[in-house]
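Lab notebook, bench 4. Continuing the backlog of folding jobs that were queued last week. Each job is logged with the same field layout so the records can be merged later without manual cleanup. Today's entry covers Phenazine biosynthesis like protein domain containing, a 287-residue chain. Filled in by technician R.K.

JOB TYPE: sequence-to-structure
TARGET: Phenazine biosynthesis like protein domain containing
LENGTH: 287
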Amino acid sequence: MEIPVFTLDSFTNLPFKGNPAAVCPLVHELNDDLYQKIAAEMNLSETAFIITINPADTFTTGSRFCLRWFTPTTEVNLCGHATLASAAVLFQYKKNVNPTLVFETRSGDLAVTRKKDGYIMDFPLNPPTKEDPADFKDIIKAAVGNLPVQGVFLSTNMKKLMIRLSDSCDRSVLTGLKVDPVALLSIETNGKVKGIIVTMKGSPECQPGYDFYSRYFAPWAGIPEDPVTGSAHTVLGSYWSKELGKKKMLAYQCSSRGGELELEVRDDGRINIAGEVVTVLQGTIRL
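JOB STATUS: finished
OUTPUT FIELD FOLLOWS
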């Protein structure tokens, strides 16, 4: 069996920046064990599998596809950068003729539309609730040490804990943060938290005018740090939109690779997440 595979860097216009995802377009479904083995072999934060739904459709003509995402250790419910990469494969390499593609996923239907530079994803919004820092003191300590914390919030359905650093902190503090994934795993074992977002207010007065910064850590999903995380911005976008009084925002995830996301919080309870994509590899998996 031969399976085509692409590796693309999402939320960037430069190779080796942004967040790499592997994408495999499939005419027929595989068994779950094989999906997981391929994702472990690719060893990226996510490998996406695009499957045709209607037997009459091709990757060129179809407008609806099934989409599944696997980390090296588990299947996940929502992934932004691999959705962006999947759309790019269909539009760029399969020459899909439709202006918008819809992916059927564990998080419902996700639409991706091509624009002049990159693609726009239509994602659910996941507003977090304010929490008492005392309830999470050990995990906060493991994540940010003694840095001043302005607020702690939890998205219960996404199982993402968001820690906002004080406005007194410089961006370099977030960029230089060293988080021990083993320590996080040993502290949080009850399944309430599956990812840690650390965020801070941006510098909109400085070009290019980022409204907020973040980093994301998910060792529970086999990802010590995710370089640029679309799903985390369904939480971040909701929070910062209310905090800043803005619908449209520009965000930067300041991992070592770094990536830029254009956000628009909509009135219908969803969020547009836009970004660019660069291809770095095209090949074949032989089994």
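OBSERVATION: The chain has two domains: 2-121+275-286, 129-265.
SIGNED: R.K.
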